[in-house]
Amino acid sequence: MKLFLIFIISLTIVSSSRSFEWKEFNENLPKLPINSVHGGHDNSGKKLYIIRKNLNGKILYGDVGDGNDKKDGFVIDIDEDGETSVADFEILTAENYVWCAASSNNLNQEFPICRSPRGNDLLTGTLLSNGNCRLVHPEKTIKTNDVEVLIVGKTNCN
Question: What's the whole-model pTM score?
Fold first, then answer.
């Protein structure tokens, strides 16, 4: 009995120290989860939130807009052309996160997610190994000095 109780206590400590969670989401759910990570916005001002989807054994990152009647997300495969619309995916939720200017100090984050302003849009994308950012909409690769990277678990860039 003591061993079982110790296991439960240690499991609780480990899970409570995690500062983020990927939550399952599909078009049948009424709204996005609380604490969904805001990634940017489109030119109409609609907020975009960070998502991921496992397609053919690859984790692909992208975004979903809030306020649609149908909440399809879009992910991009950095090895192929085109974005893919997905109706079921995981959405990133976190209590604390910050977007920081990309630098050599923060390119190896746990989340290969970036964003960049394009006109009136603030668009999300996937951070490439060379430090560039491949945007979801439109499919475009931009240089590191034009992007911010997502850092989860912090509230400032220092």
Answer: 0.79
